[in-house]
Design goal:
There is one protein chain. α2 crosses α3 (45-54) and α6 packs across α7 (140-154). The relative contact order is 0.19. The chain has a 5-stranded parallel β-sheet. The chain has helices at residues 14-25, 32-41, 45-54, 62-75, 91-103, 118-132, 140-154, 156-162, 176-192; strands spanning 4-7, 28-31, 82-85, 110-115, 167-171. The protein has one domain (2-184): Rossmann fold (3-Layer(aba) Sandwich), CATH 3.40.50.300. The mean pLDDT is 96. The chain is an alpha/beta fold. The longest helix is centred in the C-terminal third of the chain and has 17 residues, at 176-192. It is globular and about 45 Å long. The structure holds adenosine monophosphate. Adenosine monophosphate is lined by residues 10, 32-33, 36, 53-54, 57-60, 65, 86-87, 89, 93, 136, 146. Belongs to the adenylate kinase family.
Length: 195
């Protein structure tokens, strides 16, 4: 299986690059943000509770997103692999993911981090907010809060994968196709390495 973590702050281009990677490698896309928004649309209790936090730019509890990922792994056992987008966002989530994948005798192959500075992220998210309809993309203070949440809680996840020799950083500003090619090169190198 080819399991990838696509990592980076909000607005780094994870969703855009995920779509291209799915087409290239036939992976199942697991975005906890998308899964949470679908719970909100469905009006579930989980969705209602998550919405209160998401509307403030705060992470939802680890057990909520870990439970969602656990269900999706169970539902997609014959997948060629998974692309994790927006997950794991904390070190406990990363540890839980390793344990879940071990149950299926598989693991994360590589973690690709898209690097984009805060000024560019804010600009992109405000533009996205004009068409995405996402309340958390439409307010600069909230965008700043989400980036702070990323720096405080999510950035340490990079060291977690670095200590496993799986962390690969790529500049996330520039031509979408060129960034995609750079990601593919990292993936090809990682999969060529016999571990
Ligand atoms: P995203 O679509 O990935 O930008 O996520 C939107 C919001 O959903 C975040 O600001 C969080 O409130 C919540 N969220 C998404 N994924 C996670 C996660 N892995 N852990 C905690 N909260 C999450």
């Amino acid at each position: 299986m080819l399991n990838l973590v696509l990592f980076g702050p909000p607005g780094a281009g994870k969703g855009t690059q995920s779509e291209k990677l799915i087409a290239q490698y036939q992976l199942v896309h697991l975005s906890t943000g998308d899964l949470l928004r679908s719970e909100i649309r469905g009006g579930t209790e989980l969705g209602l509770r998550a919405k209160m936090l998401m509307d403030q730019g705060i992470l939802v509890p680890d057990e909520v997103v870990i439970g969602m990922i656990e269900n999706k792994l169970k539902e997609n056992q014959s997948a060629a692999g998974f692309i994790f987008d927006g997950f794991p966002r904390t070190v406990p989530q990363a540890e839980a993911l390793d344990e879940l994948l071990a149950q299926y005798n598989t693991q994360i192959k590589v973690m690709i981090a898209l690097v984009v500075d805060e000024q560019e992220l804010t600009k992109r998210l405000l533009i996205r907010g004009q068409s995405s309809g996402r309340p958390d993309d439409q307010n600069e203070a909230l965008i700043h809060r989400r980036i702070k949440e990323y720096n405080d809680k999510t950035a340490p996840v990079a060291s977690y994968y670095e200590s496993q020799g799986k962390f690969k950083a790529i500049g996330g500003i520039g031509n979408i196709e060129e960034i995609f090619q750079a990601i593919c090169e990292k993936i090809e190198t990682a999969t060529a390495n016999v571990r």
